[in-house]
Predict the structure.
Amino acid sequence: MSELDERFRAAALACDDTVVWHARRGPAETMTLLAAAAEELGIDQWDRYGEDGAVGRLETDLAELLGKPAAVFFVSGVMAQQAVLRVWCERRRSWRVALPDLAHQLRHETDGPRLLQRFRFEPLTEGWETATADHLRKIPGVGDLAAAQLELPLREAGCLLPSWEELTAFSAAARELGVPLHADGARLWESQPHFDRPLPEITALFDSVYVSFYKGLRAMAGAAVVCDAGLAAELRAWRQRMGGTLFAMTPYALSALVGLRDELPRVRESVAWAAELAKELVDRGFRLQPDPPHTNTFLLFADGDPDTISERVVAFMEKQRIAPCGRWRPALAPGVAMTEVTIHAAALDKDPATVAGWYAGLVSADAG
Ligand SMILES: Cc1ncc(COP(=O)(O)O)c(C=O)c1O
């Protein structure tokens, strides 16, 4: 970590308020909230190896919310998706999985899925592009794939989503070809307003869907897969083989229940607020990916040096005690800086035009 990274982190930690991501909640405050929630939700027994208790409640609630017969809780999404894809591979006697080249497994998992599970990943798309039925059909030997995976939204592309028509056409093509379709729905909650369809209508397009609890829903950590009962039983076996069936998982499951209760109802508002901020930023000459945003997250670009802009953000945070944005980084184009903007409920009491004005001030001396 560079010295500037360290100063940025310290200044952000010292802030009392934030525009991006969630307001900070310390361990003691989090545990107090969870203790109260256990009472409020009537969770008075521990789960044992993921059976019953808060885990059982979460799995039942989630299966109903997402309209699938079963749900399986995992402490991490990385493990959840290795388990799902492993089952599809075993069933199909193929190790070929098609996914976008920007997928989380290929960018952020230190090559674990390939090294541990022997998956052979094949690119569905390259770069900032959403996968269409044509992309799938063009894969050589497509009918022999173990599975295809879409990431909803594609985070590395600025949380990019397909249109509803593109998504339904992709699902229909996968069914016609007999290829199981899996969704990395780490940010499915934040994607739902874009499709403007009930969650079960979205999940019905897939054979398995992974969701995360600690991004939009602000839990401590945790993930789940929704699917049919047969797949769920196999996932439980793989979870145990991978060392993921902890003696007790109640704290994580409880924090996910709190997220579903307290944060999920505010996601639509956060997505709308991000759209307002995006409009104000475009009016001030910023470039966005995607423009307009599809979710509560987008990539923001400005001419200038990322470290110089980040230095100004540090000074802003030290003075105002508000974190307006994250660290700026070099974009792929020379002389251009970028940052990922993610909006949750902490931003909702702020005026998007005022925040866009802050951003313009932070980049102004470098703006072209
Ligand atoms: C798109 C996507 N997939 C999978 C994961 C993995 O989730 P976890 O951190 O729970 O292992 C993440 C985490 O950031 C993600 O963003």
